[in-house]
Records
---
Amino acid sequence: MGASSTVPARDPAGNSTGQSRAAKGPRFRFRKPGILPGFGISLGFAVTYLSLVVLIPLSAIFLKTATMHWPRFVATVTSPRVMASYRLTFGASFLGAAIDAFFGFIVAWVLARYSFPGKRIADAMVDLPFALPTAVAGISLTSLYAPNGWLGRYLVPLGINVVFTRLGVVVALTFVGLPFVVRSVQPVIQELGSDVEEASASLGANAWQTFSRVIFPTVVPALLTGFTLAFARGLGEYGSVIFISGNMPMHTEITSLLIVSKLEQYDYAGATAIASVMLLTSFALLLVINGLQARTRKFEEKS
Amino acid sequence: MSASRKSTLGRSGESAIVRWTLICIALLFLTFFLVLPLASVFAEAFANGWRTYVESVRDPDALAAIRLTLLASGIAVSMNLLFGLMAAWAISRFSFWGKNLLVSLIDLPLAVSPVVSGLIFVLLFGLHGWFGGWLDDHNIRILFAVPAVVIATIFVTFPFVARELIPFMQAQGSEEEEAALVLGASPWKTFYSITLPNIRWSLLYGVILCSARAMGEFGAVSVVSGHIRGETNTLPLQVEILYNEYNFAAAFSVASLLSLVAVATLAVKKIIEDQAGVRGGQV
């Protein structure tokens, strides 16, 4: 199982020698002693499985990139078609996440504070984009906004074309990102103590002042977390976008699709180069998200 | 005076007009962005009547896709369930060096986009990949075959059970298990009669999220499957193929099956949240 190689400092007899070791005074110990069993096998399995399924496969992408000729790598990831796809992917993800932040905040506020008919269903529906397969979301959004679709038949005569345009990409990314904002913000609004609001009101603040000076600043870290999560999800999104975007090079082609078309042409090096850029961006965003979540937690602990 | 104030004003003193305006904005947004897309799947699926619907769902390729989807998600969920239990036990019950790093690494697949997740396995098992030559020499097909579909599904759903269980078990602490062990229960007995009943809702929650994602995964599976009809097509890939052939009624019929799974997932998820007070993290 690989336990022995991954758990170097574990003594073979398990827990029984823990005390005699501790008696020898302070020294580096891989784990603290206790009476619970199964440390070696559970950690051994977890680390082995993690390495086989995630770490080793993921390293392939960076090792493959490292073997690439540097000027060729730069030329690949900065070619005009790829640059156009970055602009679309980043721009549409940003817009989608911004729309989600605005409406998601209202949805979270309403769900956390008010009672109204259908609230439980509305609350459950928020997670639909998590549960609905992206390909299904893609084809249903496309049919909805098509010229003869339920929404398209009213929008197209007004000159608002969603299908096969950049606006379509924004609509799809707004769909997939919504739950991230709502589920980040909702618990924070729920936890807000009524004492601060009452204090603010008793000191003579009106509702808007209480909201903008007392409530909103408390929710900002969570809102930023939700925005960043939605943005990060949008960058990598594939299934819900490709049907509605029409995939015209330089115009409505997202970066994920470009990776797929490079693969279909057996240009593995090119696909890997673009993928490594996307992967580094996601990891950087992951760090930002972790920092934001740590701030949100600090806020919650304080209050 | 205070009683009537409470009934017409919200907690921070907003008026009923503000309250109902916000509720209407929220409900309209949810209707346009969530309810209509879901409803349109079923409307399009039944656009040509029941007969077409039943025929599309009973098509041999569609049935093969259902079988493959169930196989891949079944394997992925059980593997990741085993991993989730092991990882959560190690992380929540022991303190050891490098624990925080391990917790962060478990979430890694969530940061990898679906297409890139698929690409990783092309680089490993493709003809020019790390193991491609060796696999080809031994006549083992992984890429563009069922094994790659299963492996890609395992990768994208990897963290789902673990990230539900770890915080839950950490919050719960190990006093009950320690008490059972001190009183002479065997490790297995302790696990079955103390740990498992305690974590059952959280475990079920993770399994439900994991299987919903496993059945619906598109990008990663699309890259590694090779799109062979009746062989390596999962349900979402079957939807794509039918749609690209302009066979819309059939595409939406197959999509409606996935949508039913999604609605069931949401319902069960909500029930668990309400009944057991389990509230999941982000997916």
Note: Chain A touches chain B through 103 residues (CB under 8 Å).
---
Amino acid sequence: MSDDPPGVDLADHSELDFSTVDVTVSPDVEAEITRLLQENGLELDEQINTFVVCRKDGHLVGCAGFDRDVIKDVAVTPGLHGAAISLRLGSEVTKLAAARGYHDLFLYCRPDNAQRFRGWAFYPLVEIPDVIALMENNPVALAKYLEKLSRERHPGKAIGGVVLNANPFTLGHRFLVENAAKGCDWLHVFVVREEAAQFSYADRFRLVTEGLADIRNVTIHQGSKYIISRATFPGYFLKTRATIESSFTGIDLLMFREHIAPALGINRRYVGTEPFDATTNCYNASMKHWLADAPSTAAPIETVVIERLAVDGSPVSASKVRALLSAWDLRAIERLVPSTTLAFLEGQATPARDRKQGGW
Amino acid sequence: MDIVRNAIAGTLESGDVLVKVSPSEDGTLTVHIESEVIKQFGRQIRSTVMETIKALSIGAATVVVSDKGALDCVIKARVQAGLLRGAGATDLNWKVLG
């Protein structure tokens, strides 16, 4: 005779079994995960290869996908939500990520699930109502970053912001910043921190600093995980699809509007026209919407588009400089970059240069 | 003791607590506590956490405590484990830990 309260099967002690799978080599598991995600109104994210899966009696009952420090595609079999599976899953994900060296994690979820992930010790960062929410598990990092930024506040009516990847820094970047700085009392320049570019963050940052040294009303800031990073804008670093989902540009731009801009008093964001890069072009096009028109608790920020600098009738871009570099055409590069960048590029050993100099 | 690396201890399960420890960037001690029973036991949890940090002579660190209703002894053990891992400690002084 059982003492269990009615309706609760305390005899159900079947173990939860957790493991990690790479779905690119396990199509069967991928199919199972896809089904579980669909039951939860989610789609398998193509950027996610690694999943923590939870099985009960062999059946898949929970999954959580991650790409380094970014967690997505978390689902638990409907009906089991009340059970402890979700929290066990959260513990496993946290532990596994920590074992791989990722302690500060980001998480994407549907806004109506955000409360569940508060239980995973994740805190809301930014949200597009009814579409997507971004959370992180470090409750103090953003506040500390913003506090540091706010020490660089400058007085004035027109305070501008511009974000550069500067891969590498060209006369086009210089032109954009120069003109933006003319139009405002103070301009804050951010250098994308993510190490996904041909040139390292340290080199990119140094060349931006050197290339803008003579402009009086500019502060150059270190980038962070909160501004065009793999966490806030995963699509930017893939650039595989011509169009990226606008919800992801929205997350990054709302982060800027709601957190970064208020810390520095930024009320306008500058951007150059983008003739070549479809991802960046899409980002720029959606800027006005997310920074001003979209509903938000933060004040709107004006988007100012500046026509890109052209040399010999052709727009200057970093991608063109990289192409010329791989052909080791320094004479052509010289017309597109400041002397500081040129000096750096001359020191770059590339296969093309070696071929030309080695004469083989 | 100095916190030199990121570390975690504990779980998110009911009756347990997850402790995240990381080095301080600005040389300060930051302690963030969240608990499902913060209204009833918030003060007690905080004093357990702070005493444990103090007993190990930690001056600078970021400590994030996500409590799921753990008993005091569990909180103390998890905070100790997190801090000792974060300090890379191998030589344990059980007098201090007890």
Note: Residues 145-351 of chain A form a domain with the Rossmann fold fold (CATH 3.40.50.620).
